[in-house]
Design goal:
With 324 residues, this protein is of the alpha/beta class. It is built from ten helices and 13 strands. Helices cover 42% and strands 16% of the residues.
Length: 324
C-alpha cells in the first residue's frame, strides 16, 4: 500500500518523496500548489520527483487540505497505510497579513487528515505530522525540550501548529491512532523556500541588494540541513509508537548559529560582501531557536550530520546550477 505525503510539492515534502521513491516505496502526493511563493518552483519540484519515479510509483493529486470532502475521498481511493502530513501554511510574518489562510490549512486541514486516518479503521499504521519550533514561543536560554511549555505562541502560525498537536492528541486518545508530531527547526537546503533567510540572503547578495537583518542581526537559529530532516522523518515514519497515542519530537541541528555566521559563510561561498540593513525585531519573530534532540537520539539513533558550512556549500552549488 502507498505512503501518502501531503505538501508533496513543498520544500521538505519534495525531498521526502524523492527519498521514499529511491528506496522503492509507492507514494501518493497531495498539494494545492498555492501562490504563497512562486508555484513554478513547486511545479519544478514535482517534475523532478516524477522523473525519478518508475511508472506507476508516484501519483499526484492537486487538492486543498481544507477541502475535507476531497481529502476523505482521497483516503478512500488510495488506501494509504502510512501518512507523512507535511502540508501546511508556513511563514510567521505572512500570518500577520493572511490569518485565515493559516486556520484553513493548519487547523481545518489538520482535522481533515486526522479524519482520514480515523476513517481508515486501522489501515493507516502510522501518521507523522509536521509541527514547528515556533510553538516554544519567544523563550530564551538553553535547548528547547519537548516537555517545555508551549502555551505562549508568539505568532498565529505557531498557534495553529500548536492547535494541530492538541487536535492530534485528542484523536489519538479517542480513536486509538498511532501519531507522531515532529517539531522542525529552521530547515534549509537545495529546492528551499524563497521566504526563508538562506534564500533571501543569497538572492539579495547575488543581485547587489542589501540583506535585511531583523533584531539588528542578533538572532540565533538552529539551521538544519534538509537531508538530515528527511533522514529523521523516515526513521520516525518506519517506527510507529509501541501503543496507540501521540509522540512529540524535536528534529533540529541542536547547534544554533548567529545570523552573522550564516551571512559570513554565504559571503565566502558566493565571493561577495553583503550590504547589511539592520532592522528592529519583527512582530511574531523569536530571538533564538535551539533543539534538544536527546529523545530522537534515544528512540531512533538519529542525529544530524551536516555542518552549516557543508550544508551551505551544497545550497550554493544548487543555486549556481539553477541560475546557469
Amino acid at each position: 500500500m502507498p505512503i501518502l505525503v501531503t505538501g508533496a510539492a513543498g520544500f521538505i515534502g519534495a525531498h521526502l518523496v524523492r527519498a521514499l521513491l529511491a528506496r522503492g516505496e509507492e507514494v501518493v502526493g497531495l498539494d494545492n500548489l498555492n501562490p504563497y511563493y512562486d508555484p513554478a518552483l513547486k511545479q519544478a519540484r514535482l517534475e523532478a520527483m516524477t522523473a525519478a519515479a518508475r511508472p506507476g510509483q508516484f501519483r499526484f493529486h492537486r487538492l486543498d487540505l481544507a477541502d475535507h470532502a476531497a481529502v476523505l475521498e482521497l483516503f478512500a481511493a488510495e488506501r494509504p497505510d502510512r501518512v507523512a502530513h507535511l502540508g501546511a501554511q508556513a511563514g510567521v510574518r505572512w500570518s500577520l497579513e493572511q490569518p485565515f489562510a493559516y486556520t484553513a490549512a493548519n487547523v481545518t486541514g489538520q482535522l481533515a487528515i486526522l479524519e482520514g486516518v480515523r476513517r481508515s479503521e486501522g489501515r493507516v499504521r502510522h501518521a507523522v505530522h509536521a509541527s514547528t519550533s515556533s510553538v516554544y514561543g519567544a523563550r530564551t536560554g538553553g535547548p528547547f525540550a519537548e516537555g517545555d511549555r508551549t502555551d505562549h505562541p508568539a505568532s498565529l502560525y505557531a498557534a495553529t501548529k500548536k492547535a494541530g498537536e492538541v487536535m492530534a492528541e485528542s484523536y489519538a486518545a479517542l480513536y486509538g491512532l498511532s501519531l507522531t508530531a515532529l517539531r522542525f527547526f529552521t530547515v534549509y537546503g537545495p529546492w528551499g523556500r524563497p521566504d526563508m533567510a538562506v534564500w533571501l540572503f543569497t538572492a539579495a547578495m547575488t543581485q547587489g541588494r542589501p540583506i535585511r537583518l531583523f533584531n539588528e542581526g542578533r538572532m540565533r537559529r538552529d539551521f538544519t540541513f534538509v537531508d538530515d530532516i528527511v533522514a529523521g522523518v523516515l526513521a520516525v515514519l518506519d517506527h510507529p509508537p509501541a501503543a496507540p497515542g501521540q509522540r512529540i519530537y524535536n528534529i533540529g541541528n541542536s547547534r544554533p548559529e548567529e545570523l552573522g555566521t550564516l551571512v559570513a559563510t554565504l559571503e565566502r561561498l558566493l565571493g561577495v560582501t553583503a550590504a547589511k540593513q539592520l532592522l528592529p525585531m519583527q512582530p511574531g519573530d523569536v530571538p533564538a531557536t535551539y533543539a534538544d534532540i536527546s529523545a530522537m537520539r534515544r528512540d531512533f539513533g538519529w542525529a544530524p550530520t551536516t555542518t552549516l558550512e557543508g550544508g551551505l556549500e551544497r545550497w550554493v552549488a544548487w543555486w549556481k546550477a539553477r541560475a546557469a
